[in-house]
Amino acid sequence: MPLAVKDFTWEETEKMVFITVPLKGVKANKVDILSSEEYIKVNYPPYFFETFLFAPVDDTVSSAQIGNGAVVFQLLKNEPTLWGQLHAVNTGDKDFMRKKRDEAIQRNQERAESERKEKAEKKRESEKYTLNEMMRLEEQERGRINDVKEEEKKKAMDELERWKEEQRQAAEKERQRILEEEMAKEAARREELKKQKKRKGKNIFEESSGGNPTREVGKIEVKFTPRVFPTPVRESQTPLEEEWLRKQAEAQKIIEVEDADLTEEEKNPIFMRDKGNAFFKSGNYQAAINAFTHAIRYSPKMPSLYSNRAACHLKIRNFFKAIEDCSKAMDLLHPPVPQNADSRCKALVRRGTAFCELELYVEGLQDYEAALKINPNNEQLKQDADKMRSIIQSSKG
User: Fold this and answer.
1) Rounded CA gap, 229 and 39, in Å?
2) CS domain location, by residue (predicted)?
3) pLDDT computed for residue 236 by the predictor
4) Minimal CA–CA distance to 356: which of 345, 346, 367?
């Protein structure tokens, strides 16, 4: 049975009430306190203290401190006045006492529930604020990354535009040079025709009138040089064919590079090209690139070396290098003649593929359409070109 504590002390002022309850050696963590506006209970087995206050107090600002072997209550009165006694007048009434206990318990439960809800609401607000802050920071980071991507894309596009302008200027210079050569050849041909007309205008019988004998009949043998291009004369493009043959001859010339560590085979660009092709077939694309680069060192005007190296760059997704190599191959494959049609078609398709991988579908479509002009019966090229047109149309839409 609990033992009621009788040796408590209390003091009062007009505004405050101070109650000191001794703990009698009981540890502070075993003390249970229940308080309300009109009721105070301290339970620390086997001891028990309770009091029904003479008048209500403000329980929200009152306090209870445990320390130095006692519990000290500091209670703020609702109405400033001197009570004269601590206990309520009806302390002996059991119904009154039971009612006040129940009210105190209910009030504490309501207060605990209110505090729990308030704490949960604060926790939700804190989590909501934290989540919003995280989302804001993530949005800032996404914006920063997008800005970096756009800047890199802009730089790449500017670089590509500069490169295309350089290629256009180079092509224009080459076209002007070819045009000047054609004009010079045409002028020379006309001059030769004039000379032939003058020679034909002379009377071959004028000399015989001076008493000289008539020339004897003879036979002239005419031998024709076999043509490399089996093109009919009416369709012949002699200047372009001659220029292509000259470029082929230049491509076969091997640059002498002094390197004692290389064998004679390693100094042969044809051997290194075949070796690069073997590496490509086996899937060793970096070794193939090294082989083609080594071959270009000895034969920088062989277009197949650049075109094959571009295919390797496509495999390892070096798209800008693939575009550069294909463009170099196209320069070396000029002028366009039937003998280099297949090589030009391959270079155009590879460059168009690199453009598409960079999402530059308009440039890629231009190369594919140029390849289709060379090989109009290639169904795969037609299908790929149609796909690009669909992508371009959808992006415009």
Assistant:
1) 119
2) 3-87
3) 53
4) 367
CATH number for the region 256-396 comes to 1.25.40.10
Backbone conformation region of residue 275, classed left if phi is above 0, alpha if psi is from -120 to 50, else beta = alpha
pLDDT in tens, 248-262: 656 555 555 555 556
Question: What is the domain partition of the chain in residue ranges?
Answer: 3-91, 256-396
Instruction: Convert the pLDDT of each residue in 334-356 to its tens digit.
Output: 888 888 899 999 999 999 999 99
Q: Which two tokens stand for residue 116?
A: 């729990």
State the CB neighbour count (10 A cutoff) for residue 379.
7
- Phi, psi of 33, rounded to the nearest 5 degrees: -120, 135
pTM over 0.85: no
Per-residue pLDDT tens digits for 77-125: 999 999 989 888 887 788 888 888 888 888 888 888 888 898 999 999 9
- Candidates 190, 163, 183; CA nearest to 351 is 163
pLDDT of residue 234: 47
CB 389 within 8 A of CB 382: no
- Let me know: does 306 contact 326? Beta carbons within 8 Å: yes
Other CB atoms within 10 Å distance of the CB of residue 363: 18
Q: Is 3:15 a contact under the CB 8 Å cutoff?
A: no
Three-state secondary-structure class, residue 148: helix
What would the two tokens of residue 106 be?
């209910």
Is the domain spanning 3-91 CATH 2.60.40.790? The answer is: yes
